Amino acid sequence: MTEVLTPRVVESPDQFTARLRARMHSPLCGLMPSMGFLQRQRGAPRLMVAGGELTGVHVLRGLPAPKIGAYHIGGYGLRPFESHIRTLGEVVERYGGYLAPVSGHFPIRYASVAELRAAGEQCDAGPAAPYTAEQYARPGFPFRPYRDDDVLGWVRATRLRDGSDCWVPAQLLLVGYVVQDHRGEPWVAPAVSTGTASHTDPDKAALNALEEMVQIDAALSHWYGGGRSARIAHDARTAALQRVLHEAFDPLGDRPEFHLLPSADLPGFTVACLIRSRDGRLPAVAVGLGIDGGLERAMYRALLEAAGVRGLATWSTLQQRFERRETVTDDIFDLESNVSYAATPEGARVVDARFAACDDVSADDLPPDDDRPAGVRARALIKAFHATGKRLYAADFTTVDVADLGFVVARFWSPDLVTLPLPSAPAAAHERFAAYGGFRRHDPHPYP
């Protein structure tokens, strides 16, 4: 029997990103109206740092146009493909999150917890008071606890323990949701994109979103809690990363340092990379995070993000100088001023002091890598959530135009993990800190 071979065109990574960018990048009608790159400073790592802007989703919410860089969209890498695809992927992720409230797939119901329970509906609003009484009493503190008779906006999500529908607060699941204060809805906590990820592979989108939740929980619980990090010493296990560092970093310039931030009870390697300035130039320090089932991959991801955070710190510092603004050290309620503060000598001392409380460990002495397929690892991570008594909810933020690009956008939320807080508003009363030695400090975190 004669076998008929069907030809298949294989695109190179650069060809794929060029084709995708041609469909997404347009100042008139693209998901990404602009994209740019940061110029490398003297002594900085030789990594490409790209940034992109998101189309005018603010119009759909009746809000003013945000300032440049407000959506924190960026991509980093050794090669153009890496920085391009990460930037395009983050544009898709943010777009899915901000379109969800107006997409029609998440109709919002306004009711109180008491009303939903009286109607026999399943609902989960998370912690009623994630902040302490002292925090709520501070002048200008933006959040307040909810009561069972407060009206909240609710959307349906899938409770993964049993696959049932459950009402969860729209303001905590949908990044693009606008709190309806004219209805008396309290602002309970900030919605962040943590737990949202886009990818052309649904399994990888789910895994990336779930791992990001674990990463932020471990990193913020370390920063505000009582745990210690483990400074990683290079050995044969990190040989490939060492070659990257040799090529990308000037021997007399900035140098990276890697710390393992262990999760209290969830799998994966969460790594923080600190890039410090050797000669006193700003930024004095930048901290990036990475997570993966493989240690070296997690370290590489942390390195790339640290390079991006370093670029953000440089950009923010220049903006402050042009606008003649002082560096904010107190009441930081955005995710840029904290990065600028960490970049100053004063802020760097706070970062250095926190990471000085560490143990030293060789990479070879850490647990083995988990190299199973993405779908297997995602399902194992969901089982780990449930095995440790954590609630976990899921939603699909994939819009029609996102699907047409070949992407899916996965969204997960767990009220039992610490999420990325506004730097001067950590959820100090969250029960999760008990697993990390309790809540210890209010210093603003350095993560964007």
UniProtKB/TrEMBL annotation:
Pfam families, alphabetized: YcaO (PF02624)
YcaO domain segment(s): 75-448
Leader sequence segment: none
Domain of life: Bacteria
UniProt protein name: YcaO domain-containing protein
